Automatic annotation (TrEMBL), chain A:
UniProt name for this protein: Uncharacterized protein
Region (Disordered): 467-488
Length: 488, 365
């Protein structure tokens, strides 16, 4: 946890309400999301007990299983859930757009929108992953036949759960995590796990102590149920002969409705934040993934395997790592509050431009190139080395190479443009050489070079596209990853 | 030793007095395993050593927690265990053969049975007898082991002990959580590993008593769980050496809990018949180390959380560390506001917090 977020938690604790830790929204919020709140039967291996699902706040659909231990009833539930979920998931395949690839020499198509399924917490994602695993290999014939919609649901849920592992993907977001990225509560992250208690801090409708007490009385957001509820309410209704179905349904509805309402409250809160500049780009990636999966289904591809092969696992890990790095950088570039965390650790610093030579040309090479130089003064810690390449979020396409770093002996706040609140902090002067993002001529485009007096933020983080390292061909794959054995 | 027993403050007498008229809450592998959760907490160490019913105390002082277990979970656990042990452990053996070289075609099955307390002595004696023979391959069901916890002898009932042909013993833990495609819930597996370690420790103690080598008990316990979404069993070996060393350290610490207790005044008591105010007064005499993780493992956690209000540790260990280890929220906020650090150790934290506050204010605009 960064000190900035920890400080926000301390402030929230003292103030009795959550504190913002983001200036913009970092997650795409769909205009027509599907909310899904699953409940599981205690002790069983991912046996569904009930679910509340729907794309409209005022029309929740309750699905319940009278006897979760009965496999027929479990798969009947899967078929009902498929009826609610699959049409929604497939409803974004109407319109597609052309995307140029290979520098405009080719074109591919992707759908202009994609589905978004919200669950309350990370447990909800895990439940759907396992439910996908238990249904995607079922067959429509054989010893235990199921409707064709059941394995199809399983494949969709597996697709969504896999997407949820990709940092920055918004196909299957969980509400607790999404809220926790934007607000710091005055309690521990363990307690934040209950959406009711987290929202009590973020959107308090009464003094925090009362709000938290009310949250503690709210039924858990699942998928695990309250043992007391199991023992005192569910068990007598389920074990009655015949089972008291109406009462059971009513009890499950009562257990799920508070979370259902909280989910929509969370969506409203998130919608109230302005979206970050790079949120749409990440959603483009989600649309790509969705389009590819729809195509795979249409082509009759097989269900996702139980285990990735060694090569597929390595490739997936590499994609996840790249996505994580890109996501961290994009959030910092989009959001000064996130960037502040990097400034605290020295991976970024803000300063004032005290000298700018925008027309400097380097003619030592074969042909002259435009290489303006600027000097930036800062009182923040500068933990970069000479030769490091820095970027500024204001000009992401421009590289600033550190030529020299000078720690000034005495504060010169009086005769420089350093911010007046700098006090007697030591001042550092950084000389930088700029390249890129200034047009193709030997004279920089207006505004492309920072001018003296401008406040500038520089960071070692870079948002530029890095071509993924290609994996070796099958014949060159080492035996550790299933390649051909080494000849002796 | 005899001298010590005659002293009025001998640990067990003192422990009994701490507990008052309430009967001692019995330890089992689960409660012993829980001791390793927050080893720095003196309050928990003392209350557990004295066998105080923490749940009853918490209820009495107005902080009842929900620590029940679902009937559904219990029913499934029992059904799975019964299925494995049916027909002299036929199904269990087939699962065990996959991970242990049980080469004998026939394996003895000894059920020492009985849940009643009255048979405990007999069961323990019979367990000793069977282990002393330690000859052929056999499954011993419902053995009764003992372990010294804070000077008290605690009875332990592992689900089962497998006796292997080569004379090495493996503890078998039967759990009803699922292993799907070779993967299971990490938290549940580690809880099972700690419980298995408790049994390994108890079993080793018993074998040493019988004049055998402690290494006869393998540090590899066998975990038997249902596979995927059905009840078919699957076995896996888990190495519990790390859990064993944590456990030994923690049990040693509990043994030294008597010095903590000696320092307590005569008026300190956790008799649940006492009025809540007196119970709370007694609780405050022993220092607690509350962390949010306590909420899921300790019955007193809700009270300790209330007591720790305003402490940075109550927000979680990572928050406290990120705030430079400053103990209270008020102090952290004061330092962030520019207050002078009261001690030189806080100087570094003060600089960090001031910078963080400045950056945060600037970014919030």
């Amino acid at each position: 946890m960064s000190t900035l977020v920890a400080l926000a938690r301390a402030q929230a604790q003292a103030a009795g309400r959550a504190m913002p830790i983001a200036r913009v929204r970092h997650v795409h919020v769909h205009d027509r999301p599907l909310v899904l709140v699953p409940l599981a039967m205690a002790g069983e291996a991912n046996a569904p007990l009930a679910a509340m699902v729907g794309a409209a706040r005022d029309r929740p659909c309750l699905l319940a299983v009278a006897q979760p231990r009965n496999r027929d009833q479990r798969f009947a539930f899967a078929a009902e859930l498929a009826e609610q979920v699959v049409p929604y998931l497939e409803s974004f395949t109407g319109v597609s757009e052309a995307v140029p690839v290979d520098r405009g020499r080719d074109v591919r198509y992707r759908f202009v929108d994609a589905p978004q399924v919200w669950v309350p917490n990370a447990g909800g994602v895990d439940f759907l992953r396992l439910f996908g695993r238990s249904t995607r290999f079922r067959t429509v014939d054989g010893e235990y036949p199921v409707p064709a919609s059941v394995p199809l649901l399983g494949r969709w849920l597996t697709f969504l759960a896999n997407a949820a592992e990709v940092p920055g993907s918004a196909l299957l977001p969980d509400a607790v995590r999404a809220l926790g990225m934007h607000w710091a509560s005055g309690q521990s992250s363990t307690e934040d796990g209950q959406i009711a208690s987290l929202l009590a801090w973020i959107d308090p409708r009464e003094p925090i102590a009362d709000a938290l007490r009310a949250a503690e009385r709210t039924p858990p957001a699942g998928p695990a149920t309250d043992p007391d509820f199991d023992n005192r309410v569910l068990a007598p209704l389920m074990n009655a002969d015949p089972p008291r179905l109406d009462e059971l349904t009513a009890a499950l509805r009562a257990a799920l409705t508070p979370t259902w309402e909280l989910m929509w409250q969370a969506l409203d809160l998130l919608r109230g934040l302005p979206p970050g500049a790079r949120v749409a780009t990440r959603w483009d990636g989600d649309r790509d993934a969705y389009s590819a999966f729809v195509q795979l289904l249409a082509e009759g591809g097989p269900p996702q395997p139980r285990h990735d092969s060694a090569v597929a696992a390595a490739a997936r890990l590499s994609r996840l790592e790249n996505a994580a790095a890109r996501y961290a950088v994009q959030r910092a570039f989009d959001d000064p509050l996130v960037m502040a965390e990097h400034r605290l650790t020295g991976a970024a610093f803000a300063g004032t431009v005290t000298m700018s030579a925008p027309d400097r040309v380097d003619d030592t090479g074969k042909r002259p190139v435009l290489r303006p130089r600027i000097i930036v003064q800062t009182t923040e810690p500068v933990r970069v080395a000479t030769g490091a390449a820095l970027t500024s979020p204001a000009r992401p396409g421009q590289k600033a190479t550190v030529v020299s770093i000078t720690r000034l002996p005495a504060p010169r706040a009086a005769d420089t443009l350093v911010a007046p609140d700098a006090g007697d902090e030591p001042v550092t002067e950084v000389l930088l050489e700029l390249s890129g993002g200034m047009g193709r001529k030997l004279v920089a485009e207006p505004g492309s070079v920072p001018q003296a007096g401008e406040t500038l933020l520089l960071t070692t983080l870079t948002d530029s596209f890095r071509r993924p390292v290609p994996f070796p061909e099958a014949a060159d794959t080492p035996w550790t990853h299933g390649g051909p054995p080494e000849p002796n | 030793m005899a001298l010590r027993m005659n002293r009025p403050n001998a640990p067990s007498t003192r422990l009994d007095r701490l507990r008052g008229a309430t009967p001692a809450r019995r330890h089992d592998a689960r409660t012993i395993a829980a001791l390793t959760g927050n080893p720095g907490c003196s309050r928990r160490a003392v209350l557990d050593a004295a066998g105080v019913d923490k749940h009853a105390v918490a209820r009495r002082i107005g902080f009842p927690g929900s620590f029940g277990q679902s009937r559904f979970a219990l029913a499934r656990g029992n059904a799975f265990e019964a299925m494995l042990k049916a027909d002299e452990g036929l199904l269990l053996l087939s699962a065990l053969r996959e991970v242990l070289p049980l080469d004998a075609p026939e394996v003895d099955y000894d059920d020492l049975g009985g849940e009643a307390d009255g048979t405990r002595g007999a069961r323990h004696a019979r367990t000793r007898e069977l282990l002393a023979e330690a000859a052929g391959a056999a499954l011993i069901d419902h053995p009764l082991l003992t372990l010294d916890v804070a000077g008290q002898t605690v009875f332990l009932e592992p689900d089962l002990v497998a006796l292997q042909v080569h004379g090495r013993l493996h503890v078998v833990e039967i759990k009803s959580f699922a292993v799907v495609d070779g993967r299971a819930d990490g938290a549940k597996v580690s809880a099972a590993a700690v419980q298995a370690a408790v049994y390994v420790l108890a079993l080793r103690g018993l074998l040493v008593e019988l004049g055998h080598d402690a290494d006869l008990v393998s540090h590899e316990a066998v975990l038997v769980c249902p596979e995927n979404f059905a009840l078919r069993p699957v076995a896996a070996l888990i190495d519990v050496r790390k859990q064993l060393s944590t456990l030994r350290r923690q049990l040693n610490r509990l043994a030294s809990v008597s010095s903590l207790i000696d320092e307590l005044g005569e008026e300190v008591s956790f008799d649940t018949a006492l009025p809540p105010a007196e119970l709370i007064a007694s609780l405050t005499r022993i220092e607690a180390r509350y962390a949010p993780e306590c909420l899921s493992v300790c019955e007193l956690a809700a009270y300790c959380r209330h007591e720790a209000g305003g402490a940075t540790a109550a927000l979680g260990r990572p928050v406290r560390d990120a705030l430079g280890g400053v103990p209270t929220v008020a102090q952290a906020l004061a330092l962030a506001d520019g207050a002078e650090p009261q001690t030189p150790e806080l100087a570094e934290a003060a600089t960090l917090l001031r910078t963080a506050a400045r950056l945060r204010a600037e970014a919030l605009g």
